[in-house]
Amino acid sequence: MPIYTETDRINRLILQGGRTGMTELQFFAAEIKEWKDSPRRKDQLTGDLYYVGKHDILHRQRTIIGADGKLQVVHNLPNNRIVNNQYALMVDQKTNYLVGKPFTMNCENKTYVDLLSKVFNRRFQRLLKYVCEDSLNGGIGWLYPYYDDKGRLAFKHYPAYDILPFWKDDDHTILDCAIRLYPQEVWNGYQKEIVEKVEIFKSDGLWRYIYQNDMLTPDVDAGEHENYFAVVDGEGSVEEYNWTEIPLIPFKYNKQELPLINRVKTLQDGINTMLSDFENNMQEDARNTILILKNYDGQDLGEFRRNLSTFGAVKVRDDGGVETLQVEINAENYKSVLDLLKKSLIENARGYDAKDDRLSGNPNQMNIQSMYSDIDLDANGMETEFQAAFEQLLWFINQDFSNRGLGDFENEEIQIIFDRDILINESEAIENCSKSVGILSDETIVEQHPWTKDVEMELARLKKEKEEAMEQAQEYSGAFRTGTNQNKETGGDE
Fold first, then answer.
1. Contact, 180 vs 198, CB < 8 A?
2. Residue 346 CB coordination number (10 Å)
3. Which pLDDT score is estimated for 65?
4. Whole-number Cα distances in Å, 429 to 29, 274, 424
5. Any idea of the CA torsion for 445, 451, 452, 453, to the nearest 10 degrees?
6. What pLDDT score was predicted for residue 245?
């Protein structure tokens, strides 16, 4: 059985569509329509919504069993909708763990490293955190390299639910083209309205359209087409060019591109439900106290509750009365279930519990490493995907360096190392560094020292201190030799 790639599928669909009169634009419109409401995109949107605290519990309604045995919505009971956003905690935890610290670049060509350091500045570090969040929330995050108004190479990030990719290969490593769908507020006369705009990234440039009524029409206001960048020569002539690769770089959370929310949504919903139900039970008198009526002198239970809440008393007949049956709420049961749900969520999200008992007192490094084992496992996979993304990113940066005449670095070997933000026992780490002197190089020891911020700067300081110490030693030695010679010339001490 032949194996078809994504490109084969697209070409086959376009060919089939061509036989029935379908154009490429109609094909893209049909793909957008199918993708908009697809389960994959809904999962991506859910991840983003849950991250900002918009959980399903906020739409919950209180129900009771009606007279017909079916559930019916009621509005006279407490309906707390509490969100305890453990999912967002896991996303932030993973993001800061992997890319919270500036990454390190290892390369023998120091000129290349210096140029890259200007590109990978603090602004880019912040952008990388956004991309990492997109990757966790949507299974994949996108980085778009472009030239800004000043002609400088810049970057934007797009969430997963904005981008519909068309891959050349089944492993989803090379893009054939991609569609960006996003809403934009525009003025229609004196009123604002939301318009769905479309950008199609192709090998011949960027194409812009309006998506309306399941159709694509050229975006006249923004311009239907433009090339990716322009170059001004020495004579002032402008030449427009396109990248030889699609300028969208995927940063994947995992090979399957599945969002983190898929692993933990039910557990997060369970936490929200438990907290909300507990609060409801605390507010419901009927849940804590069951009232037993004898010879009630009234029409119905609604009237009874109204009189009790309004006057604090009810009227009964003859030997009637009101007795109570107390129902105690066991808060410990709620706490046990809640703790179990939180623990399960952390385990399934492959995070760590910052309140873990292993951190109490003076934890050793083995305990800390044990606590971080799950998040390390997830970070290893993400790091592999991100390093592959950086290879694609560096291709665009190298092209920019070449276009600006800064040098040809295409064949340079460079290693991107993510410095994970892990807790350590500083005393133990410093002791290990001291014991490694003479066994490991100074550079390796400095890299592993917990107080090191910049390895190269620290090594330069050490070198300078050693040189100053040697100069000082030579001065002392010279002074001592001079005194000795003088003694010899004078025949000894006076």
1. yes
2. 22
3. 80
4. 58, 42, 7
5. 160
6. 95
The distance from CA 194 to its chain's CA centroid, rounded to whole angstroms, is 27
Residue 285's contacts (CB-CB under 8 Å, 6 or more residues apart) are none
Exposed / middle / buried, residue 252 (Cβ in 10 Å: 0-12, 13-18, 19+): buried
Residues 21 and 63: their CA atoms lie apart, in Å, by 53
Two tokens, residue 240: 């427009």
E strand residue ranges, 203-278: 205-212, 215-218, 225-226, 229-232, 238-241, 249-252
Query: How many whole angstroms separate alpha carbon 299 and alpha carbon 475?
Result: 109
The DSSP code for 297 is -
Residues in the chain: 494
Indicate whether 155 pLDDT > 80: yes
Higher pLDDT residue, 425 or 255? Answer: 255
**pTM for the whole structure:** 0.79
Residue written as token pair 């770089």: 249
Q: What is the DSSP string of 405-458?
A: TS---TT---EEE--------HHHHHHHHHHTBTTB-HHHHHHH-TT-S-HHHH
The Cα 414–Cα 412 span in angstroms is 6
Is residue 46 a contact partner of residue 54, using CB atoms and an 8 Å limit?
no
- Encode pLDDT of 357-409 as tens digits: 666 656 666 667 778 889 999 999 999 999 999 999 999 999 999 988 999 99
Which of 50-59, 179-188, 295-304, 343-352 is the least confident region?
295-304
Q: Return the ∠ at Cα 339 (arms to 334 and 344), rounded to 5°.
A: 130
